[in-house]
Amino acid sequence: MHEIDIIINQFVLDGGKLYTLPKLYQQLEQKIYSSTASIDEFAKILRTDGALSAKLLKLANSALYGFRSEISTLNQALTLIGLKEVQSLILMDSISRHINQDNCCSSVEMESFWLRSVHFGLIAKRLAKKLKHPEADHLFISGLMSRLGQLVCCYSHSKKVLDVLHEHINSPNVKEHCIEKKYFNFTYNEISAALLEHWQIPNKIVLAIRYLHQPDTISEEVFYKEAMILNVANSYSGILELDKPQLSDSTMLNIPDSTMANTYIKHVEPKINQALSINESIVEDILFEIEMDSLQMLAILLPKI
After folding, report:
1. What's the pLDDT at 275?
2. Which residues have C-beta within 8 Å of that of residue 270, sequence separation ≥ 6?
3. Residues in the chain, pLDDT under 50
4. pLDDT of residue 248
5. Distance (Å, whole) CA 181 – CA 204
């Protein structure tokens, strides 16, 4: 085993002690792989967490999903949102509760972290749909979980995490993962992938996250395309993190235009833009769609951050 792999494994062991998969997540996962499981059974599991159930119902009735009739039951909410997306939201809710209770991630501004993560997931999902990729829901999960490594690192190396953030702000033209590598000798997404692998999250999610900065090193074509989509989503969400207002400033949101779209396109390697056939129109549509969606999702799921 290489030295870097040993270091990453130690970080993952530390992260595993800090974060464990929620029981609710594990119960849903077991049912998903059962051929006889029904929506009623999934809803029954979710009802054991009243607060989360209420959030999911509120989310299903939001403009984010655009369903005209009222969603009044968990069964309907599950059908509309999708089981895999619900699982990722459970994980997000659990980690947020854990951090709020322990107050142990002082070097990471949690509002910015979750806004960046939701942007990441929604951009990946929207882009996948624009490209007619069949795994849009998996890409939402991948994007949402891609930066968990930052939280793991902040427990034992909070000053380094802060240094990475400051350098990213002061040197916006330097690739963010290059700054992470400078301080840690690995990137946050590598830690995220290793942690998700430790949790036995499906391999397709792990691989896309692990290689999002080097998509051309993946031999399987489907994972290659997913890693490229995550590469784009990571880049766009990073720009939004630096340039966009926080939840409290939602009235200041900008309407994307071709000039703005061009700025985003230039932050991605030309060969990736070409491989995915990304153009200004696609970027404008995605940016317009995710602005209010991300703010709304966070306001419902994590109202106290």
Report:
1. 94
2. none
3. 245-253
4. 46
5. 24
Q: CB of 215 within 8 A of CB of 237?
A: no
Q: What are phi and psi of 268, to 5 degrees?
A: -110, 145
The single residue listed with the structure tokens 């998700």 is 196
Structure tokens at 68: 């005209």
pLDDT at position 247, please?
46
Residue that the structure tokens 């490229």 belong to = 228
Distance CA 295, CA 284 (A): 18
Alpha-carbon gap, residue 87 to 98, rounded angstroms: 17
| Secondary structure (3-state) at 155 | helix
Buried b (16+ CB within 10 A) or exposed e, 178-192: ebbbeebebbbbbbb
pLDDT recorded at residue 14: 65
The H or E element spanning position 249 is none
Among the listed residues 263, 245, 242, 262, the one whose alpha carbon sits nearest the alpha carbon of residue 254: 245
**Strand, coil or helix: what is 270?**
helix
- Options 3.40.920.10, 2.40.30.110, 3.20.20.80, 1.10.3210.10; CATH of 3-301: 1.10.3210.10
Burial status of residue 295 (CB atoms within 10 A of its CB: 0-12, 13-18, 19 or more): buried
SS3 of residue 37 by DSSP: coil
d(C-alpha 151, C-alpha 22), whole Å = 17
| Tokens of residue 250, six digits | 């939602």
Predicted pLDDT at 73:
93
- CA separation for the pair 278, 265 (Å, rounded): 8
Number of Cβ within 10 Å of residue 9's Cβ equals: 13
Cα angle 8-11-17, degrees, rounded to a multiple of 5: 145
